[in-house]
């Protein structure tokens, strides 16, 4: 499922979803800069990475503060955050279930396909039955 498709299912929660993605990305950037900083030997590169890490930490803080402001993130109230996360999981499962409905319909058609295959087998037998009955009919007419 593409991100655009996910946004269509979010309704008026699009901003919240986008800001959550931004928060996750900013956390990833902080981790990446931290690892790179600890792996480098060059003092010049270390200085550049330190500045970039500081910028990434500041960006993360701004995103987190905005999320707290709009009520999308509750870092100081664990019960409230867990409750909100459970709602999001439930909503996500519904979205995923809706996105898979066409696949489910195709799966339901497969047993019908096997019925058609069995009907095809029956129709293959029918011409033989017709030929046999024609032979009988010819045999009775010859006698």
From TrEMBL:
Listed Basic residues bias regions: 85-97
Keywords noted in UniProt: Capsid protein, Sporulation, Virion
Disordered as annotated region, ranges: 81-143
Residues forming coiled coils: none
Subcellular location: Spore coat
PANTHER family: SPORE COAT PROTEIN F-LIKE PROTEIN YHCQ (PTHR39183:SF1)
Protein family per UniProt: Belongs to the CotF family.
Protein's recorded name: Spore coat protein
Organism: Salinicoccus siamensis
